[in-house]
Amino acid sequence: MKISVLGAGSWGSAIAVLLSKKGYDVSIWDRNQQLLNEINHSRENIRYLPGVLIPAGISTTESLLECINESEIIVMAVPSHGIREVCTKLKGMVKNKQIFVSLAKGIENSSLKRMSEVIEEYFPENRIGVLSGPSHAEEVSRDIPTTVVSSSTDKKTAEYIQDIFITPKFRVYTNPDIIGVEVGGAVKNIIALAAGISDGLGYGDNTKAALMTRGIAEIARLGVALGAQPLTFAGLSGIGDLIVTCTSMHSRNRRAGILIGQGKTVEEAIKEVKMVVEGINTTKSTYELSNKVGVEMPITKELYNVLFENKNPKYAVSELMLRDKKHEIEEVAQMIWK
Ligand SMILES: NC(=O)c1ccc[n+]([C@@H]2O[C@H](COP(=O)([O-])OP(=O)(O)OC[C@H]3O[C@@H](n4cnc5c(N)ncnc54)[C@H](O)[C@@H]3O)[C@@H](O)[C@H]2O)c1
Ligand SMILES: O=P(O)(O)OC[C@H](O)CO
């Protein structure tokens, strides 16, 4: 069975390796021909996933049509800001029976849509699922035990994706709450940037634990307002992904945050991290979305001020500490029994 992976970044490459090791016929597309040449030549993705063998069975192509031709599954592994561009290019090439699996974690700036919603705009007849959860490419590609969740509005699709991706080292659960799964995966990047900034400022574990705990509260508030199930945020794509992204040195969002906390500009931080720092765009969309649906997201708001209004991160933290007094449990209860 053939599977196409669109995007030869770190996650696209890691997932292609996993699928190839499982015996599928994997074809990778990327817009960057030079990157594909390098992968073909060295059987390694030196830029995005160094040190990992890309099996000989994986083919690469710069032609989208060739990549998706005859494939049963189209894995969308480009960053969230590139999903619409790729969907536009795919228009007219895709057959209705082909299933999309989105790996991208973000909320689009222009439309404030989740990634599966963007894909559905172009391919309303196709089955669409998402794979999300605590899963750094650097670890998955080295067979380090990892757990994720497959989600789709259609149970059979979620279970099909579970069967395709599951391995003894990559355990896939299902969750029908696609809104919650996508909101958790996208918005945790904002909190990871904030946690990184806190580390970069030299604050401690207490501060980071506070950001993570209050972070999941505001992620869940937004998610529930958009129609998600509260308990999804206690799962792999919620608190699970938040933990890994806020604590791992593999996290691009956390690393960018550390650099900003240490005094680098946003542009300098992006340049130094080299790979996609999705939390930056997502901060903008989430800030706008929270205003649109009337949900209070204090950490997101302060991060927006730091990233886009040049606010000193230390003042942003003070502002968070000096907010009106609140009752913690009341808020959680309201969220769950709304
Ligand atoms: N890296 C991880 O560990 C990881 C894990 C889970 C999910 N994800 C998600 O997977 C998605 C891809 O992340 P990544 O880490 O592989 O990114 P990356 O920065 O490693 O690679 C990005 C790749 O996408 C291509 N690309 C960039 N912009 C594009 C555009 N506009 N159109 C088409 N192609 C474009 C680039 O050529 C590059 O090959 C992101 O949404 C990310 O949040 C990443
Ligand atoms: O490296 P990050 O910060 O983009 O996070 C990657 C994945 O989303 C972790 O699950």
UniProtKB/TrEMBL annotation:
Known catalytic reactions: sn-glycerol 3-phosphate + NADP(+) = dihydroxyacetone phosphate + NADPH + H(+); sn-glycerol 3-phosphate + NAD(+) = dihydroxyacetone phosphate + NADH + H(+)
Localization annotation: Cytoplasm
Keywords: Cytoplasm, Lipid biosynthesis, Lipid metabolism, NAD, NADP, Nucleotide-binding, Oxidoreductase, Phospholipid biosynthesis, Phospholipid metabolism
Binding site for sn-glycerol 3-phosphate: 105, 133, 135, 188, 241, 251-253
Pfam families assigned: NAD_Gly3P_dh_C, NAD_Gly3P_dh_N
InterPro entries in the record: 6-PGluconate_DH-like_C_sf, 6PGD_dom2, G3P_DH_NAD-dep, G3P_DH_NAD-dep_C, G3P_DH_NAD-dep_N, NAD(P)-bd_dom_sf
Residue span(s) of domain Glycerol-3-phosphate dehydrogenase NAD-dependent N-terminal: 2-157
GO terms of biological process kind: carbohydrate metabolic process; glycerol-3-phosphate biosynthetic process; glycerol-3-phosphate catabolic process; glycerophospholipid metabolic process; phospholipid biosynthetic process
Binding site for NAD(+): 7-12, 137, 252
Pathway assigned to this chain's UniProt record: Membrane lipid metabolism; glycerophospholipid metabolism
Residues the record marks as active site: 188
Chain positions recorded as substrate binding sites: 105, 252-253
Gene Ontology CC: one annotated term: cytosol
Binding site for NADPH: 10-11, 31, 48, 105, 137, 252, 276, 278
Domain annotation Glycerol-3-phosphate dehydrogenase NAD-dependent C-terminal: ranges: 177-317
Main location, first listed in the record: cytoplasm
Family in the record: Belongs to the NAD-dependent glycerol-3-phosphate dehydrogenase family.
Functional description taken from the UniProt entry: Catalyzes the reduction of the glycolytic intermediate dihydroxyacetone phosphate (DHAP) to sn-glycerol 3-phosphate (G3P), the key precursor for phospholipid synthesis.
Protein name per its UniProtKB record: Glycerol-3-phosphate dehydrogenase [NAD(P)+]
Organism the protein comes from: Caloramator quimbayensis
Lineage: Bacteria, Bacillati, Bacillota, Clostridia, Eubacteriales
Gene from which this protein is expressed: gpsA
